[in-house]
Specification:
Order of helices and strands: HEHEEEEHEHEH
Radius of gyration: 14 Å
CATH topology: Rossmann fold
Mean pLDDT: 89
CATH architecture: 3-Layer(aba) Sandwich
Shape: globular
Low-confidence stretches: 1-14
Distance between the termini: 6 Å
Number of domains: 1
Strand content: 15-25%
Number of helices: 5
Helix content: 25-40%
Oligomer: single chain
Amino acid sequence: MRTRTAVRSAHRRRPLPTAHTDEAIRAILEDARTVAVLGASDKPYRAGCYVPDYLHEQGYGVVGVSPKLDGQAIFGSVAVGSLGDLEGAFDVLDVFRRSEELPGHEAEILAMQPPPRVVWLQLGVRDDAFAERLRARGIVVVQDRCMLAEHRRLGVRPRPRDASAE
């Protein structure tokens, strides 16, 4: 189990297509090493728990972001209370927040250094104006899709564990 929140990333391997084709989604899932989960939950029946847990089992470095979980060990690392508390680079920011709450997180997402390569809005979460503003800053945005479902549907293989990230 990790004792700190920094997760190292080897991202920026290949340019990501911006269209949401199977090829683009596969490239995101195969290239990503690290995932920050905004709206993480410790309730097993919530998608904000079982999706990041699945991603961790598949070999991704996962850090939960939730004020309710701040300092707790979950998904193989220690959760943080806000995006500003994250240490290190994250390939994907997986968002489990309602669509109407997205604009309230925009400044915090754009302040991440370095910014995430991809912001993934989970199934049922969509805000085209928000997505366009992030894209204008060079961030790939996936809307209204589940990382777990796409990972399984496309048959993406589990990642080998990075010993330096554990």
